[in-house]
Each structure stands twice: as C-alpha cells, then as structure tokens.
What we know:
Largest sheet: none
Number of helices: 4
Low-confidence stretches: 1-10
Order of helices and strands: HHHH
Mean pLDDT: 87
Amino acid sequence: MLRSLGQRPVTGSDEDPRVAELRTAVSRLRRELAAHPAEFPDRGIAEDELAALAAMAAGGIPEIPRLRRSLLLVAGAIGSVSALATRLADVRDAVELFGEPPHRTLR
C-alpha cells in the first residue's frame, strides 16, 4: 500500500500512484466478483460500475465525484456479499486516496 500521496512508483513510470492503486484494487475486485459463484440481484450493476472505475483509472486522473458515485453503486450492489468485503474495502481505500470532492455551497 502507498504510504503517502506524494510517493512515486520506483519503476520509472510517471503514473500517479493513486491511479495505480485504484486500478489494482478494481482489478482484484472484478476478478473475485467474476469467480464468485452466487448470483445476486445487483450483480450486473456492480460489474458495470467496476468496468466504469477501470475505465476511469485507465484514463488518468478521474473525476472525484464520479469515482465516489461509482463506489457507492458498487458498495450498494455487493455490500451484503461478505466474501467480497475485503476487496470492496480495498477499492474504497483507493478512492479515498483522491481526497474529498469540493463541497458545494447552498445558495
């Protein structure tokens, strides 16, 4: 796991380490979800949103509000499947590396 937001990968790549962490976490959850034998009603939603998260990670620095929306949809879709809880927490941790979205003020 990355120790700080400013840490750079050692591989010589100039990729943002937060994006790398997100891509890894999403990939692991997608693999575990694909291997999970039980069907559940919102599995398709989880798969679609994980694909969206993977696409955001592949595209560079993602939009924080969109990241958080996808995380909420994935969590809602698979949150009750305890076998996926660890990998879901990894995705949540990776999303949190991007910080909080700007707060909107009410007018």
